[in-house]
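Morning run. Coffee first, then this:
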Amino acid sequence: MSIWEAYALDKDIRFRGSSGGTLTALNEWLLASGQIDSVVVAAASESSPEKTESSAVRTRSDIVRATGSRYAPTANAAAADVDNPASAVVGKPCEISALRALAKSRDQRSPLLLSFFCAGVPSQHATNSLIHELGVDDGADLAALRYRGHGWPGDFYVEDTRGNSARTSYDVSWGQHLGPAVQQRCKLCPDGVGESADISAGDFWRADSDGYPDFTDQDGLSVLIARTRRGEEIIRRAAEEGVIAVRAIDPDAVAAVQPFQVVRRATLLGRMVGSRLAGHPTPRYRGFRLRRLSMRSPLRTLRAMAGTFRRARRW
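And here it is:
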């Protein structure tokens, strides 16, 4: 329906957020204004912050506590009340797709569905390994762990209960530890941008001419995509009421700073063929124009097919 550059006007939410804090700001406003009665979020476990828990929350403090990405396994869809259209769910694109399909199969209105750009879910072992590599004692109890935020893109930060802390950049944490540990199923996913959501959000990076993001710490910016009339109405009302700042942008501007999402869709057919040639079953997708997209980048598709075939033979 529409695409926006956006950020939360609440400075604390924008600072804590992984990009512009927009999903947190929208959820806080929707709840405070009575437009929803609960929202499912993922947040650090209070008893074990290195782990991530999913729950339906109803207070501003719980929403703000869940600000920021969690690059670890979660099950937000399992915590959703599919029969309550006055609730909201923030989930990975795959979870949102499932909830949308479930509501459609029951011929009922879904909860408000909010998603984000996703590059896949890393193993919990990757988080544990990174904590260890940063020098935090394996036997220490943790007091806090965040993957991003407190600036944009923000650092991976861990602190134990004795006051010892360590951090590393997002470029290192994701690029060298978490990203390589993304589960194989995610590598065959056709939707990293939340196409089934009412609203999806992502990083609106400042990037070089090749699309590589500038990870210099700065004020966060989100891209917000309204994918339904319901989503667009919410974004416009939130902007009018001073919850978020928005500026209309062109789809090509988003593609230019999200080259990973563009390439992953264009080469997905090649990865699926490579997996099948190695003897592994793959999902069947409809409506994603995978064949047409693969023809636009035939060399990349062939390389993706060959690489997947080589890796798949070792599974």
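The longest strand covers residues 2-8. Good start to the day.
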